[in-house]
Each structure stands twice: as C-alpha cells, then as structure tokens.
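tl;dr need the bound structure. longer version: we got a ligand (fe (ii) ion) that a collaborator sent over and nobodys looked at where it sits. i said id run it. heres the input, straight from their email, havent touched it
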Amino acid sequence: MMIHPVQLFDVESSTFTYILVADDEQSAVIIDPVERHWERDLAHLERLGLRLAYVLETHAHADHVTSAGKLRQLTGALAAAPAGCGIAPAELQLNDGDLIRFGADDTITVLHTPGHTAGSVSYVWRGNVFTGDTLLIDGCGRTDFQSGSADALYDSVVGKLFTLPEATRVWPGHDYKGQSVSTIGWEKRHNARLARRSKEDFVVLMAALNLPRPRLIDIAVPANQNLGLPHGA
Ligand code: FE2
C-alpha cells in the first residue's frame, strides 16, 4: 500500500505536523506537534483509532512551542528527540542511524542533519523523509542561530539527503508559499538555494540573508527543551 502521512498545518508559524500511521493501522507517531493544536491532533488520533507510540521532534524550535510533553502525558506515548538538542526530558535521545520501531512492522531511520541547529535530525520512513528545517521546498532553514552552520547544512543536504532515492517524498517542517510536498529528485534539480550550487556560494548566500531574530526564540527554545511543559512540570 502507498502510504502518506497525515499532514497538518499551523497558520501562525507555518509549521507542518505529521502523523505517521503504521501499516497495521493501529499505531502512530507524530512529528513536531504544535502546542495550540494538541486537541486537533488528539482528535485525529481518536478519529482514526490510533494509539500514539512516540512524539518525535526534529529539533528545538525557535518559532513555536511544541505539544510533545502534553501529548505524552495524555496518551502515554514516549518522547523522542535528537540527542544534540538539549531536550533532556525526552525518553529517547536519538543519534544518527538509530531506528524507531512502531506498529507491527514499521521502522523510522534517524538521520543526523545538522546545520539549521547543531542537533537537527531528519526522519526516513517508507519512501518519505521528514526534513524539519534542514531542507524546505525550494529553500532551507536559516543557519544563523542555535549553533547553526551553513557549512554543515550544505553537507547534510547535499551529502546526505540528496543521496536518498530521487522518488523519496520530502515533507518539510515549514512552508511559507503554500506548498506541501516535494521529492528529493525535484529539490536536487530546482531548490533555489541548494541545487547545483557550490558549498562556497551557499555559505556566502546564507551569510547575506540578514534575517530578523525570531520573535519567540527566548520563550520557545527553553520551553521546547522541556517538551513544551512549564519548567518544574
Ligand atoms: Fe526551526
């Protein structure tokens, strides 16, 4: 069966959340849930009769707060986060190559894809890759804070993500232009920042972006390092 994730969107931060349903259609994981949508996300799980096995984070977000801690409390799921993101309360601290198993026979492979943040990961599952803010459709995440590095992001995208099969569907962490899914082959050929560009050119391009500091960074990052729960909770 051709399997797609359930793709959900937060209009305020342009963030995508994904529910991945196991082949047995009984078990699921959720990637990058957003605080204010926890009821919507639970309603989807209930509607589909799914037990939530894991809440996964691609990194410690600077632009919105996660509902990972809340969903964990409400469903009994375990939280899984990249080892390099300082998200201490997550039960699973993920490293490159780790496998996350759920359902009867489903496996997610963790790829460490630093650059947007030092700890950022991507998740590969059944011909899909969930790229967080590492690779966006026709773009990429910024690399100018949270231990970001344009040099590292280039290696993560060109050296790792672009070596996945061309038909792999790319599901990004954000989209600001109304797009929802792409493929590795398409991004290799058409991504405005990364297609056919040298690392040197890319580093210069990223250094020249001069983006404003994210409005919520001082609130969101510490909150997300505690899975979105108040400190002490
Ligand atoms: Fe981010």
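gonna send this back to them w/ a short note. The domain at 6-209 is CATH 3.60.15.10 (Metallo-beta-lactamase; Chain A).
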